[in-house]
Design brief:
The complex is a heterodimer of chains A (about 400) and B (about 300). Chain A has about 400 residues and is an alpha/beta fold. Chain A is about 40% helix and about 20% strand. Chain A has 2 domains: about 220 residues, Response regulator (Rossmann fold, 3-Layer(aba) Sandwich), CATH 3.40.50.2300; about 150 residues, 3-Layer(aba) Sandwich (Rossmann fold), CATH 3.40.50.2300. Chain A has a 7-stranded mixed beta sheet, with helices on both faces. In chain A, strand 14 and strand 15 form a beta hairpin. In chain A, helix 3 runs parallel beside helix 4. Chain B contains 12 helices and 2 strands, in the order H-H-H-H-H-E-E-H-H-H-H-H-H-H. Chain B has a two-stranded antiparallel sheet with strand order 1-2. The chains are: A alpha/beta (about 400), B mainly alpha (about 300). Chains A and B meet through strand 8, helix 7 and helix 8 of A and helix 2, helix 10 and helix 11 of B.
Amino acid sequence: MRHLTKWTLAAVASVALVGVSTDANAACEELVLGSAISFTGKYSTNGIHAKNGYDIAAKRINEMGGVKIGDKCYNFTIKYYDDESTPARTAQLLERLIKQDGVKYFLGPYSSATTKAAAPVVEKYKIPMIEAEGASRSLFNKGYKYLFAVLSTSEQYLASSIALAAEVAKKNGKDPSSVKVAMAFENDPFSLDVRAGVVDDVKKHGLKIVIDDKLPRDLSDMSATLTKVKAVKPDLLVVSGHSKGAATAARQIKELQIDTPMIAMTHCESAKIVKKFGAATNGFLCPTQWAETLSYKDKYFGTAAEYDTLFKKTFDGYKNVPYQAAQASAAVLVWKDAFERAQSLDTEKVREAIAATDMKTFYGNIKFSKAGNNIAKPMVLRQIQDGKYNVVAPSEWASHKVVHPRKAQ
Amino acid sequence: MLDNLNLLALAPVLNIQILLDGIFIGAIFALAAYGLALVWGVMNVKNLAQGEFVIMGGYIAWYVGTLGIHPLFGLPISIVVMFAFGWVTYKLIIARVVEKDMFISLLATFGMAIVIQQALNLAFGPEIQIADSGLPTHSFKALGGSFTVAEIKFYSFLICCFLAAAVIAFMKKSRMGQAIRATAQDARAAKVMGIDTEQVFAFTYALNAAICGAAGVMISMIWVIQPFYGITHSIRSFVIVTAAGFGNLPGVITAAFGLGIAEQYGGFILGAELQQATVVGMLLFVLMWRQLQMRRHRQAVQ
């Protein structure tokens, strides 16, 4: 029995990782935000990026005097649990945060799958959650009232590449209806969302779909699809299938010497395709939620570039700041803004304040639709040019011009 | 679908590309499947951790690559390390379940698969990894078009052929190979004849791990690896062995090439979403056909 208790204690201790933000203003009270997020399992890399994003924002807000409600001030503390990248665990841990730890304000988990599991729980207990890492559009068509997301939803990921292809065709004196599009999407909720957005925009701009392949989840070979691409010679190839899709596509595009003039895919950075495949990836278009070269700014972090510098200084080992971290920070900023506008700790009042959010941050503008997704921030398209990711669309924020056709090497 | 068939007729060179890709990849499937057939036939253990062994081999090649050594040198290292790993897991786990009924060994190997996945995840993280061979791709002109051959796929094919030949020679000529074949035929009789079947089992299991490790080295240079991608390779091996039957090396090789080519054609004609469905569909067909054949056979005996 004694052994059993010892093991149970050890297990509990290893599960409960409590993060405490430092540099708190001593005179302020504590205001606890809760999050069940992935420190282990398949989402752990990005889960930790998100945690770092949450932490740096909480720290910055506390340094700047905390959250002011009436004549009191509060310091953000974030209570984390590790959901082991399993949705069922996320839901369990959120209940635990609510029932045992009494947390009333949530930050999201990492990934659409875990957020999907979290949404019904926060709805049931009427606890508002501002999430930054679940992009699936199915999160925002269920009528959830307590779920808000600062990021662009997934159907916007590659849609801008279609507009870009149409634009390029017009500039070259061609009719957009002559533009042939080849699509290869993994058969999973995220990529199918991305596909839905692409198909909508293809219809809008009057392009023509010539290949529409869905890659099974457990397939790491798309040479059959690419052989087809080689034969029908489309003007644009769009690929989405998480890191595996990007790595497989980049490797086999190089191997089969595919010379499609425009190629767009998700997850270029997380798959590290530039490092792995070098010059063969030149000209790929990659969507991103955020880039440090954008001209957004706010009073907490300054410009996007200043956030980038501060983040790299605070956390070791980052060459590029992932957008997953930036959007996590933005979610914490929304919490502060909402508390101060609500001037209350009452969850209902704070929820209303969140719903009415209309703010500018270093990450982009944030304004929620009725469904809870952010409608004020567009998706950014970057092109790999000589091994660097340069913003090429939308044109208002673009720092570089798109290279077309891409130079296949 | 008809469009795609039309495309094949219009550009016959595509057939060459698809066939070559299918054969190159089929050769690697054959390796992993032969390992499975060996363990299945000799020990009657269905190794569900087969794919994980493959992925482990892949990580060894990748790791060797990160040290600045060409990942192909990972091949001998992988074979040695995986052989040792297979031996140790046999002594620790498989030896305890090999005599028990089938479900115990299924559970044990399934548990091993999970442990290996999570251990790889802890050690190397969940990111996709590739080992870069740095070898170029060549383009050839034929039948009014062009097709490409990646050098690494060609070399992998040669290595697979060499390894398969080595294993066949070993099984035919060496004392241990003969002992393995004797044990496969009848373990009890082999024991009576003075063969240390325990040793044979351990060796067989270790040999399987080593073969998988070699396959993994090639996989990491041709496709991508990640701690959780083993399952696909396990399933492919099972499909091949089920179709070919164990103890039938030519059958395994034919089935593996067939599977590789069928996957590529299925993906091309029916679309990538049905690429693996094609394979599983073929398995179903083979099983039904076998069933009918055997029914005839049984009736004849009566």
